[in-house]
C-alpha cells in the first residue's frame, strides 16, 4: 500500500540525436550498418566455404564476425526507427532486454578477443603442440564459453538495475537503453546497482584486457628470440590483425566507460563503439591477412567468370 501514490514508469523515451539532421544521420547509419553486415558476413562465408581457412584462428575470426553483427544489431534497428519515423518510445521490458543484450554481447566479444589472443599465444609459443591443443572439441568449447560467462554476468548487472524503482522522469538522453542513464532515472538508491555495473565492466573488459597484455608480452618475448628478420616478420604477421582489432575494441570501450560520464559527446562515442568499430574489423582482416585476401580474390574472380559466361 505504501506505493499507491507513486506512478511507475511503463515505457522510456529515447531522445537520441534531436539536434542533428535526422534523415542524413539515418542514411549514414543505415549505410554503415549495411557495410558492417556485408563485411562480416563475407568473412563468415569465406571461412565456411574455403577449406584452407578451416583452422582454429579463422574459426574464431568467423565467430567474432558473427558476434559483431549481433552487437551492432542491438541498438541500430531502434535508432533507425527513431530517426526515420520518430518512434522514440520503448517499453520497460524492451528497454531492459536491450540492456541485457548489449552487456551480454559486449562481454562475449571481449572474451572472444581474449580467446583469439590465446590461440595466437599457443601458435607462437607452442607451435609443435598447436593442433593437439587447439583441437576441434576444445575450440567449440572455447567458442561456447564466452556465452556462459556473458549471459550470467549480464544477468546480474541487469537485474540489480531492473529492480530499482522508476517513478519519475522517463526520458533517456541516449539512443539506446544503457545502465548508466537508467540508474540516473531511478528514484531509489542505485548504489548497489552501480557497484554491480562496475564489477561487470571489470570482469568483462579489464580482466580480459590484462590477460591479453600478459599473453602478448610472452608472444613478443618469443618473437624477439627469433634470429632472422623474415622469421620475426612471419611470426608477428599472424598476430598483427588481431592486435589491431583488440586495441581498437578496448580503446573505444575504455574511452566510453572508464571516464567521467555526462559529456555531450557520450552518445557519439557510443555510436562509434556500436556501429563504426564493427565495420573496420572485416577490412582489417581482409586487407592485412594474405590468406583472406587470396581467398577473397579467388571467389571474386570465380563469380566474375561465372557471370561472364552466363551472359554468353
Automatic annotation (TrEMBL):
Ranges annotated as spanning the membrane: 20-47, 59-84, 90-118, 138-164, 199-223, 235-256, 268-287
Top-level taxon of the source organism: Eukaryota
Keywords in alphabetical order: Cell membrane, Disulfide bond, G-protein coupled receptor, Glycoprotein, Membrane, Olfaction, Receptor, Sensory transduction, Transducer, Transmembrane, Transmembrane helix
Domain G-protein coupled receptors family 1 profile, chain residue ranges per copy: 39-285
Location in the cell: Cell membrane
InterPro entries with a match to the protein in the record: GPCR_Rhodpsn, GPCR_Rhodpsn_7TM, Olfact_rcpt, Olfactory_GPCR1
Entry-linked PROSITE patterns: G_PROTEIN_RECEP_F1_1 (PS00237), G_PROTEIN_RECEP_F1_2 (PS50262)
UniProt keyword Transmembrane, yes or no: yes
Name assigned to this protein: Olfactory receptor
Organism annotation: Eleutherodactylus coqui (Puerto Rican coqui)
Amino acid at each position: 500500500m505504501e506505493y499507491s501514490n507513486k506512478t511507475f514508469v511503463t515505457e522510456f523515451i529515447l531522445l537520441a540525436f534531436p539536434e542533428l539532421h535526422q534523415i542524413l544521420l539515418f542514411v549514414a547509419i543505415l549505410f554503415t550498418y549495411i557495410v558492417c553486415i556485408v563485411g562480416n558476413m563475407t568473412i563468415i562465408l569465406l571461412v565456411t566455404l574455403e577449406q584452407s581457412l578451416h583452422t582454429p584462428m579463422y574459426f574464431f575470426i568467423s565467430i567474432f564476425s558473427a558476434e559483431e553483427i549481433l552487437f551492432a544489431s542491438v541498438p541500430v534497428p531502434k535508432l533507425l526507427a527513431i530517426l526515420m519515423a520518430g518512434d522514440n518510445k520503448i517499453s520497460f521490458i524492451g528497454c531492459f532486454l536491450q540492456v541485457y543484450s548489449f552487456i551480454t554481447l559486449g562481454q562475449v566479444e571481449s572474451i572472444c578477443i581474449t580467446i583469439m589472443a590465446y590461440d595466437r599465444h599457443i601458435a607462437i609459443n607452442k607451435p609443435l603442440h598447436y593442433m593437439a591443443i587447439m583441437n576441434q572439441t576444445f575450440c567449440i568449447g572455447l567458442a561456447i564459453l564466452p556465452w556462459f560467462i556473458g549471459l550470467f554476468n549480464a544477468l546480474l548487472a541487469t537485474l540489480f538495475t531492473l529492480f530499482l524503482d522508476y517513478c519519475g522522469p522517463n526520458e533517456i538522453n541516449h539512443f539506446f537503453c544503457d545502465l548508466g542513464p537508467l540508474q540516473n532515472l531511478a528514484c531509489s538508491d542505485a548504489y548497489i546497482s552501480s557497484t554491480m555495473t562496475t564489477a561487470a565492466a571489470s570482469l568483462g573488459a579489464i580482466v580480459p584486457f590484462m590477460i591479453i597484455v600478459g599473453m602478448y608480452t610472452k608472444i613478443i618475448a618469443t618473437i624477439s628470440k627469433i634470429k632472422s628478420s623474415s622469421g620475426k616478420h612471419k611470426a608477428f604477421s599472424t598476430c598483427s590483425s588481431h592486435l589491431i582489432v583488440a586495441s581498437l575494441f578496448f580503446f573505444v570501450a575504455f574511452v566510453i566507460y572508464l571516464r567521467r560520464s555526462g559529456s555531450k559527446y557520450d552518445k557519439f562515442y557510443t555510436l562509434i563503439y556500436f556501429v563504426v568499430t564493427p565495420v573496420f574489423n572485416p577490412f582489417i582482416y581482409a586487407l592485412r591477412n594474405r590468406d583472406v585476401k587470396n581467398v577473397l580474390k579467388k571467389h571474386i574472380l570465380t563469380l566474375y567468370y561465372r557471370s561472364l559466361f552466363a551472359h554468353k
